[in-house]
Amino acid sequence: MATGRDAAFGFAIWDKVIRQGLYAVPASTVINVYHQDIVIHGGAHLATARGGYLPIIRTSAVPDGVAGLLGSVTAIFDEDMDPVKYIAATEAGDAVVAGYIMVADSPDQLFVCQDNATIALASGGMNANIVSQTICAGTAATGISLQEINATGVAETAALNLKIVRPHPLDTAAAAYCRYIVQINEHYYGDTMAGIA
Fold first, then answer.
1. What are the extents of the domains in the chain?
2. What is the pTM for the complete model shown?
3. Could you report the per-residue pLDDT of 17-47, keeping only the tens digit for each?
4. Element (H or E) spanning 174, and its range?
5. % helix / strand / coil in the chain, to the nearest 5?
6. Beta-bridge mates of residue 105
7. Pairing of β 110-114 and β 179-184
8. How remote is the C-alpha of 23 from its chain's centroid?
9. CA 5, 108, 127 angle in degrees (round to 5)?
10. pLDDT tens sequence across 143-180
11. Alpha-helical segments (H) within 29-144
């Protein structure tokens, strides 16, 4: 059952990781990148010192209401491939990349995330957007995302970020901050994705 308190943890893997990919975070990003953030494909590749040419993530926008989403960040590394808690906005790194991230990037990947208000537990099959609270806010001490499911504007047919698959099995009464199993709509690698907006 939901705790009734806001304890955001971003988008954690549900069940198992289907696939992961390595992505570059361009130097001097304007957003922070935290573990369990949903990130956006940057639409290009970058020559990096540690991974050769790698796809980049978009670092100029949060994913709220944006198509071309990739998935959730599962690991974060600095420009030398050393593990770090998060990549801070304006991080210069090696002047090419601020760092590298692993992303659970399968279009079929499921995630668990809490809502930011109250969504009816019967809303399986509905769509919702991500809400990042601030510029991809997270907790610096833990490196964990604060992204949530936006309870405002949940709809059956709207082209929103997420498909609500079902409530978390332990959340049995509708309340603020319930957890839901979700899947990304209009995934960058999905069949219906036309390109980067």
1. 18-104, 108-184
2. 0.91
3. 999 999 999 998 888 999 999 999 999 999 9
4. none
5. 0, 45, 55
6. none
7. antiparallel
8. 13
9. 50
10. 999 999 998 888 887 778 999 999 898 887 778 889 99
11. none
Say how many C-beta atoms besides its own lie within 10 A of residue 61's C-beta.
Answer: 15
Q: Give the tokens for residue 128.
A: 């919702």
Q: What DSSP string runs through 115-151?
A: BSS---TT-TT-EEEEE-TTTT-EETTTTEE--EEEE
Nearest partner of 191 among 106, 126, 103, judged by Cα:
106
- Measured CA to CA, the distance from residue 167 to residue 90 in angstroms comes to 37
State both tokens at 178: 């319930």
Cα 58 from Cα 73, distance rounded (Å): 13
Matching residue, tokens 């936006």: 150
Question: Among residues 162, 59, 72, which one has the least CA distance to residue 116?
Answer: 162
Residue type, 36: Q
Q: Can you tell me the distance from the alpha carbon of 37 to that of 58, in angstroms, rounded to the nearest whole number?
A: 13
Residue 121 phi, psi (nearest 5): -65, -20
In whole angstroms, give the CA distance from residue 21 to residue 28: 22
CA distance 155 to 106: 24
